[in-house]
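Escalation from tier 1.

The customer reports that the assembly of two entities below gives different structure tokens on two consecutive runs. Tier 1 could not reproduce it. I'm attaching the input and our single run for tier 2 to review.
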Amino acid sequence: MSKRLVITGLGATTPIGGDVPTLWTNALAGTPGARTLEYDWVEKYQLPVTFAAEVAVEPAEVLSRPETKRMDRSTQLGMVASREAWADAGFGSANPEEGGVDPLRFAVSFATGIGGVWTLLNAWDTLREKGPRRVMPMTVPMLMPNGAAGAISLAFGARAGARTSVSACASGVESLVLAMDLLRSGQVDVVLAGGTEGSIHPLPLAAFGNMQALSRRNDDPAAASRPYDVDRDGFVMGEGAGVLVIETEEHAAARGARVYAELAGGAVTADAHHITAPDPEGLGATRAINQALASASAAPTDVTHVNAHATSTPKGDIPEYTAMKAAFGEHTDSICVSATKSQTGHLLGAAGAVESVLTVKALADRKAPVTINLDNQDPEIPLDVVTGTPRELGDGDQVAICSSFGFGGHNAVAAFRTV
Amino acid sequence: MADKNEILAGLAEIVEEETGLEADEVQLEKSFTEDLDIDSISMMTIVVNAEEKFDVKIPDEEVKNLSTVGDAVNYIANAQG
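Tier 1 run:
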């Protein structure tokens, strides 16, 4: 019998809210997060895509000035969300022992898709324009992909490891699966888990744009992210971070913590099909769903809600449906699906973390958030998509899953259960 | 060319920017490591910024000799010659 794991704290900073309460209110209402980018570099480089989903609250408004200077944007966003989650879990102090946590049994599991890309490219500009002496000594600890995990473990005194999952857009959910493994193995009592991304920089915009992965709806950013719609033409680059504090049930009970939901299971698989294209039959994604349910000791028919990966690319949205049909069979029709990237844009390595926060809130409040911009649903994807108003999930034990898939053939699925 | 008071004020601004310490805590007799709790990476950042601000060169091997704020102010004043 594996240990029961519970979620006791949530944090997020996103394009539709700088904290979880704002994110949740806006996600229920249906709020487009994408806006035209107001930077001179958009014009200077003649970028083919001129909009993105930037965070609603700049991290520099929340962090101190020296913190901002010593952390890459991705780490700043991760830190903001981590502080919210840690406080939300009822740990008043950054000192884990004061909150009754053994630092040697407390780990960080944090994800990013790209890491400190702003720091890397700014340093490269400095090198070329001003020479090597002007390259800041903090460049390496700021650009490294484990920078956020390291900074967060330092900030909260987590000494049982500061791990980094890097699996492109599957990273955020993969960090939760790793957290689950650490907790179930008995090595730790508490994990601060999540993901972050801060890469709305001209180079990734140009590169993703040239892959034909990004929406070109420059004249109407709010309508650009439209998963499952027949007129979807690519994803919208987003930024932000999501964090979950996960504990063993015993540990949470001993300190009388408020519990949102159970982290019931999770799984990670790889397609080994193509470096960027998903397996058209969705076999890897199907295995991830099946294994996550098995790990949760849940039957497919227990699942009532899915927060889908659904990025709004013409090809990507279909194999996920194929995988759901394979995993859930006829029960697929009874599952309400939320494609929240329609609101937040695609937060890459943070996507699965923010969407897991939304999935947990959906179970805790028994309400599924809405999908916007679904004007004409693609007949090839006949899912029951939540649009217009939030869907009441009703009473009783329920399981919800959050799926994320990433370049590299990565599939990650987390399963949550009501408490 | 800046006089020593101007160098101190400029250096204090750089230290404040890097560490968050109030500029008026950056006084001549203060030790960078003991009093201001500045680690080696921050010290190098301060040095690089000071080189740019005062248009001087502070070789890496000199940095370990700059134990107090006054040492740095003197070094920069002399380097400006």
